[in-house]
Amino acid sequence: MRALLSFLYGLIAYLASTATLLYLIGFSGNLWVPKSVDIGPSAGWMQAVGTDLLLLLLFGIQHSVMARRGFKRWWTRMVPAVVERSTYVVATCVVLALMFWLWVPITTPVVWQVEHRAIVALLWGLFGLGWLIVLVSTFLLNHFELFGLQQVFAELTGRPPPQSGFRTPLFYRYVRHPLYVGFLISFWSVPVMTFGRLLFATGLSTYILIGIAFEERDLLAQFGERYRAYRQQVGMLIPRVRSFRQTARKADPTTAKT
Fold first, then answer.
1. Helical (H) or strand (E) element with 4
2. What pairs with residue 175 in β-bridges?
3. pLDDT above 50 for 258
């Protein structure tokens, strides 16, 4: 019964995270949703900036603190380890839902506005490409483990819990954090950049850079010299020329060692 309840909890968390991420796409791009980064009730400029900054700070604290190894060790004394990741996902959904609900649009001043059709189409294409990179990156490692579903399914079926190994498939051969690259591309590739959207993009981009620093510290602790060598060879967010050359040599049969 405990395993079944854990699985149902994990499944609900996974479905909630899927819905939340879909809403985040619409929210960040002013697409398809009734309230977004630029659409909704307005307020005084100072109140709007203060509210939006607090929401971004809340997201950054929750998302970073709950992902740290030390917090997980403490947290799993109260929460079963099998649903630790699902609980993290639920907490993220709650914080993002608060952002969607309480965010105050700041539509002036307009930082930039692109009107040329070809450039507008290019920017929307990059916006979509960014979210596609995010999606593909989750599957390149382990999508269902990332969102906690694999852990609760393993518990339900009596299988051993999944072990996280060090792998560098596809995008990870060129940059260490392609998922974050996708987010950054989508946040900044918009034809109209209001002050509120600039605040949103800057705040989440700052969180990403801070989060990477903490995440890499954990990865070094987990994988040691293997990750240290990987970090020296592969760029964090921007591909290095050497990464392309190394990949090309591996793909060229004439360079294979005998």
1. helix 2-29
2. 235
3. no
Q: Does pLDDT of 254 surpass 50?
A: no
Beta bridge partners of 193: 112
Q: Is 251's pLDDT higher than 50?
A: no
Strand partners, 112: 193
Cα separation of 19 and 100, whole Å? 13
- Closest Cα to residue 99, out of 68, 66, 57? 57
Report the first-to-last Cα separation within the chain, whole angstroms. Answer: 55
Q: What long-range pairs does 156-161 form, CB within 8 A, spacing at least 24?
A: 156/3, 156/4, 156/6, 156/7, 158/3, 161/81, 161/82
pLDDT tier at 246 (50, 70, 90 boundaries)? low
Tell the residue number behind the tokens 């914080």, with chain if given: 95
Alpha-carbon span 9 to 1, nearest angstrom: 12
Report H helices in 30-159. 45-65, 69-75, 84-102, 117-141, 143-146, 149-157
Distance CA 171, CA 173 (A): 5
Q: What is the mean pLDDT of residues 230-241?
A: 92
Mean pLDDT for the stretch of residues 123-149: 95
